[in-house]
Amino acid sequence: MDESDIFKEEGYELAERLADDCWGELHRAVYLPHRREVLFRRFPSVLGEDPDAWSLAEAEIKAWARLDHPGILQALDWGLTGSGPFLASEMPAGLQLAQCLDSGEAPGYEELFGPLLEAVEHARRLGALHLGLSPRNVWVARGEGACRVQVAEFGLWYVCRRFPDALPTDDAFLAPEQHGEGKASAASDVYSLGLLLASVVAGGSGPDRAGDRSGIVDAHFEGPPELASVVACCLSEQPLARYATAGELAGALGLSTEPHEDDAGECPICRLKDEIGVRPFEGRSTSEAGRSEDSDPHHVTTFRASTSKGLPGRYAWLMIAALALATLLVWWAAFR
Beta strand 147-151 with 12-21: parallel, antiparallel or unpaired? Predict the structure, then answer.
């Protein structure tokens, strides 16, 4: 069978092999029913042979698929077939950052890291960590006066950690605590971002293995001293000594992780949310009033207050008059 037809039963035609890495093959493919181009990941077959490993991989992919941001590639489809496990995501614009670094055409760190940190910080605020950031899962497209950055493959490091035989890991960009039994955190992503930052400024592809990390800052880093101190903070061996989040790293670099007003233009779901947000209280379900006080007391109070404010003035006065009359009747009956 021709390689392009391997996943044809699932509706995919593999058009071009883009890269090979520790997580399998990366292809540009076409989803035939819609004639839509997608980024197609063919995982190593051993991942599908371990039911527990594939179950965890599916859970992480589903968590990634819930992220909704222009800077995060959307996971569209995944499954385990006779040809092995696969993952299809939207086709990114541009090239892998690794290709840009190898060709010497990577954008400057100010242009690249603004949208990159924004995407990583957006995911963190929703409780999702990447934990596997490297030049192979960051995609860069340079347009007229703008740089579009998209990040892929969130959370798959958890599979690598629990099932290293099923899904190997590229450990060159991982934080020290990710190699042992340490607890991964948002500071682990900061470590990887520090290596990416140093690689971009130095104009190289970064370390080939874990032992090469220190050389980036000590020997190969050619940037302003203030930037060197930022990178050094990111690459601290102790997570607590690093910037805690991508947002803190952005602050140290003088960048913002707040979304731009025109970001929704690249993401139909984001744009729809923005349109709904213009009138956030229209169409609210009255079932909210039935929530228990323990679940969300502020929400219930707000709903009831807004309902009472909507009463016409004459009904309010009638209620006051009725209460006053009832009080007088009670007093009259008591002292008669």
Answer: unpaired
- Residue among 262, 256, 272, 273 at smallest CA distance from 119: 256
Q: Is the model's pLDDT at 221 over the cut of 70?
A: no
Name which residue leads in pLDDT, 311 or 142: 142
Q: Are 145 and 107 in contact (CB under 8 A)?
A: no
User: What is the domain partition of the chain in residue ranges?
Assistant: 3-276
| Helices 186-202, 246-253: crossing angle, 10 deg rounding | 40
Looking at the predicted structure, is the pLDDT value of residue 262 above 90? no
The gap between the terminal CA atoms of the chain, to the nearest Å, is 103
Instruction: Give the list of residues 6+ apart from residue 115 with CB closer than 8 angstroms, or none.
Output: 71, 147, 148, 149
Q: Are 176 and 182 in contact (CB under 8 A)?
A: yes
- Are 30 and 37 in contact by the 8 Å Cβ rule? The answer is yes
Tokens 């990634």 locate to 64
CA 12 to centroid of chain Cα atoms:
26
Q: What average pLDDT score do residues 2-25 get?
A: 89
CA distances 58 to 219, 287, 329, Å, are 41, 34, 70
pLDDT tens-place string over residues 113-131: 999 999 999 999 999 999 9
Q: What CA–CA distance (Å, rounded) separates 209 from 69?
A: 31
pLDDT at site 42:
95
CATH H superfamily, domain 3-276: Transferase(Phosphotransferase) domain 1 (1.10.510.10)
| Phi, psi of 15, deg, nearest 5 | -95, -40
What Å distances lie between residue 63 and 46, 59, 179, 244, CA to CA? 22, 6, 23, 22
